Amino acid sequence: MRFDIVTLFPELIHQYFQYGVVKRAVENQLISVDTWNPRDYTADKHQTVDDKPYGGGPGMVLKYQPLKEAVLAIKKQSSAKSRVVYLSPKGQVVDNQKVKELSELDHLILISARYEGVDQRFIDHCVDEELSVGDYILSGGELPALVVIDSVSRMIPGVLGCDESANDDSFSAGLLEFPHYTRPEIVDSMAVPKILLSGNHQAIAQWRMCQSLKLTHQRRPDLLKLREFSKEQTQYLEDIE
Ligand code: 9D3
What we know:
By secondary structure, this protein is of the alpha/beta class.
């Protein structure tokens, strides 16, 4: 899958892909990441990318032309059908279903803005969809673009190793994860739950499932409405209540 990001701060994007899962995905040619700076698509000698808002008010607005030229340049050098996503606090909040949908595309063009945002005519004419990463204010769209790319990449077959994708199996999907422990067996007089030392794999799996259900019930009851449960799980949930 190809990702092209339009941004005034390309270094911010490239840094991220020097580490971990996404670095390996680039090396294995499962994803490719390029950045495009609207400043390179200006026509005046000061390379102006922003201007004051019509109607007055604080802050600056990214100009239409440099953004449009950047998107045109991206589309010109790619044959794949592409979707243009504008990262915006006004967008639909991204969830796992949206990530899955995006992971089935061949080419994503992501627009990361700064300042107060972009000229509305760019959105009306060049953008397919506006996405937010949550109800809190950030300083720009670069972190949101990285959030989307990171999460979408993890859904592309081959990006995660067997070990990394194992906990997406049917019982844990859609639930909060059970607690983890590692050596030593006792730290500051806190012991590891005995069951985890028993070697009884079936009992351990059941304990973990119960922990997941209990935690999800406590912290995110909204998630429980989204999925169906086995008889055993339903019984356990009734016991919690
Ligand atoms: C005071 C008006 N602000 C809107 C509520 C202006 C404004 C603040 C911050 C406009 C843009 C931004 C920068 N944020 C993003 O570009 C952004 C974002 C976010 O701030 N939160 C969650 N998701 C996203 S996606 C892009």
